[in-house]
Design goal:
The protein has a single domain, classed as Archease, Possible Chaperone, Chain: A, domain 1, CATH 3.55.10. It is built from two helices and seven strands; from the N terminus they run βαβαβββββ. Strand 6 and strand 7 form a beta hairpin. It is globular, with a radius of gyration of 21 Å.
């Protein structure tokens, strides 16, 4: 069988006008598995910190900053989203990557914790926030790690 040339003119997949192109916002997805709700929050914080700056989490490292945070929400999924978004806000306000925390109180609707972090000026990724439907959370009773979560972060566009 012989190959046929249909057209010698290359096809363009994009329109000529840049205004017609839709810019795709970059996103980063983090998956977390945990055996308890408390571990899910701690592990989510570590994964977010390691996304902001790779290999930042080191349990023996000193901390430069300590902040207290209290968040309330309707359910644990919204609580995790609000908590991580507030930590991101604190991160950029204080130029601090929060890696660990001590949870004083955690229920389905409320978290009260102390955050511990390190000062940084340059981040590997500039996370903006978690969008409205950016967290999926499942609970499987028969599993060793019954709490599973997938977190989507919107990133800053450097165009």
């Amino acid at each position: 069988m012989e190959t046929q040339v249909v057209s010698k003119k290359p096809r363009r997949h994009f329109r000529n006008s840049i205004s017609n192109l839709e810019f795709v916002k970059p996103k980063i997805t983090v998956t977390v598995e945990a055996c308890s709700l408390q571990e899910l929050f701690k592990e989510s914080l570590k994964r977010m910190a390691n996304t902001l700056k790779s290999k930042i989490y080191n349990p023996t490292r000193h901390t430069d900053c300590m902040m207290k945070i209290e968040v309330e929400a309707a359910n644990s999924k919204d609580l995790l989203k609000k908590f991580l978004n507030q930590v991101l806000e604190l991160t950029y306000t204080h130029h601090t990557i929060f890696c660990t925390m001590y949870i004083e109180e955690l229920t389905e609707n409320k978290i009260n914790a102390q955050l511990f972090g390190n000062w940084f000026d340059i981040f590997d990724n500039k996370l903006k926030h978690i969008p409205e439907n950016g967290i999926t959370m499942t609970f499987k009773k028969a599993s060793l790690n019954p709490f599973n979560s997938s977190i989507i972060f919107n990133c800053e566009n450097d165009l």
